[in-house]
């Protein structure tokens, strides 16, 4: 008898997990070397998580290194063999569309949101992490797991499904309750809080805001009058001082009066004409482009730079500006290694352009310091690709990083 193709056998198709392409063996990594001072902090974190029931002692064959003050486990190897959950985040512009006509708002932020969902018992051993004090595993969802974000978004949508787009919008662990009349807001708020109680989800009161006529939400200020960009998002541009030579060149096509300063032998003389050109440049950078809402179905580009003055970056999509950001380096950050400030300036596909070439390899290098591991945990939910971009061409981010910040 001629053998049947396996795809035609119904019973085989019912058990695809019995026939994997490769046999997934448990992954075990050696623990990171940690400074004696930080060993005490790790022990405190372990004791706290044990006391809350978030972790338990383990004898799992899986083991991933830990070593951060926030218990950020390096799950890169586990994430590489994990089937990705493609549950989407909502479009931000769609969420804002639902707020039309609302005049009163309340915002709820969940407490340690990722630690609230339980992990399926059969998957608990896969979360095992190794420390100097032993092997432990999470009983609740952990930071660093690649599907944590998608799972949590799915959970929140299920909890509030009957209220979504009526008087509730949810983005991960941020819950916004909105009402068109103050009289009905109390009932809306009560219904949301009852849902949280029914599903044993807990909020952090200090991060919640109630009965507001305007509220910051997802980088914007939402009010009865409409939606506007949070002024803090463009402050980095509006506060620019007179530019230095090193980032004028790429502005020359827009700010022609400034290009003569690049000529050999020309002294740096900042005239009224050049100031007017620079003011126009700031105006263009902070009007229509900054109001562009991100399209979550498309990829993003981040241009970032760091200097002794601070950090700067620009988030763009298809050549349009989504947001600007800049800040001054803190004292302890000034002591970082050369590559660290650039990484300080770092979910959809996102391309990051930096003028520090070694950052291209942060996802693959074996030895990471404590600070780098925390950054890696922070960005693990995102599909990132890092490219080298010469500083000479990385003008806007470079300007933001060089700007003296208060």
UniProtKB/TrEMBL annotation:
PANTHER family, sorted: REVERSE TRANSCRIPTASE DOMAIN-CONTAINING PROTEIN, TRANSPOSON TY3-I GAG-POL POLYPROTEIN
**InterPro entries under this entry?**
DNA/RNA_pol_sf, Rev_trsase/Diguanyl_cyclase, RNA-dir_DNA_polymerase, RT_dom, RT_RNaseH_2
Q: Which Pfam families does the protein's record reference?
A: RT_RNaseH_2 (PF17919), RVT_1 (PF00078)
Biological process (GO) annotations?
proteolysis
| Chain ranges of the Reverse transcriptase/retrotransposon-derived protein RNase H-like domain | 270-339
Q: What is this protein called?
A: Reverse transcriptase domain-containing protein
Q: Name one GO molecular function term.
A: endonuclease activity
Q: Which residues form the Reverse transcriptase domain?
A: 67-221
Q: State the UniProt keywords alphabetically.
A: Endonuclease, Hydrolase, Nuclease, Nucleotidyltransferase, Protease, RNA-directed DNA polymerase, Transferase
């Amino acid at each position: 008898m001629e053998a049947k193709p396996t795809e035609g056998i119904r019973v085989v198709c019912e058990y695809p997990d019995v026939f994997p392409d490769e046999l997934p063996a448990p992954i075990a990594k050696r623990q990171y070397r940690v400074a004696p001072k930080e060993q005490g902090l790790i022990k405190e974190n372990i004791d706290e998580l044990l006391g809350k029931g978030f972790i338990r002692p383990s004898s799992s064959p899986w083991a991933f290194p830990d070593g951060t003050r926030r218990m950020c486990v390096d799950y890169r190897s586990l994430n590489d063999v994990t089937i990705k959950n493609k549950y989407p985040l909502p479009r931000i512009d769609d969420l804002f569309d639902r707020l039309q006509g609302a005049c009163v708002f309340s915002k709820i932020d969940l407490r340690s949101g990722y630690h609230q969902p339980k992990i399926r018992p059969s998957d608990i051993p896969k979360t095992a992490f190794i420390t100097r004090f032993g092997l432990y595993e999470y009983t609740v969802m952990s930071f660093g797991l690649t599907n944590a974000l998608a799972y949590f978004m799915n959970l929140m949508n299920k909890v509030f499904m009957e209220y979504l787009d009526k008087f509730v919008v949810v983005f991960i662990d941020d819950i916004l309750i909105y009402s068109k009349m103050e009289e009905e807001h109390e009932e809306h708020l009560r219904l949301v809080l009852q849902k949280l109680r029914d599903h044993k989800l807990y909020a952090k009161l200090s991060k919640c805001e109630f009965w507001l006529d305007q509220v910051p939400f997802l980088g914007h200020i939402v009010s009865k009058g409409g939606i506007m960009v949070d002024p803090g998002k463009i402050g980095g541009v509006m506060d620019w001082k007179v530019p230095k030579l090193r980032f004028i060149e790429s502005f020359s096509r827009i700010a022609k009066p400034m290009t003569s300063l690049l000529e050999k032998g020309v002294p740096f003389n900042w005239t009224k004409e050049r100031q007017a050109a620079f003011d126009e440049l700031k105006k263009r950078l902070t009007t229509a482009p900054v109001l562009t809402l991100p399209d979550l179905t498309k990829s993003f580009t981040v241009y970032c730079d760091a200097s002794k003055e601070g950090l700067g970056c620009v988030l763009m999509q298809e050549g349009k500006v989504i947001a600007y950001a800049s800040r001054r380096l803190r004292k302890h950050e000034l002591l970082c290694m050369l590559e660290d400030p650039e990484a300080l300036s770092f979910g959809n596909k996102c391309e990051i352009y930096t003028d520090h070439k070694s950052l291209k390899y942060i996802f693959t290098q074996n030895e990471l310091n404590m600070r780098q591991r925390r950054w890696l945990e922070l960005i693990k939910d995102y599909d990132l690709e890092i490219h080298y971009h010469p500083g000479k061409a990385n003008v806007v981010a470079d300007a933001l990083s060089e700007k003296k910040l208060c």
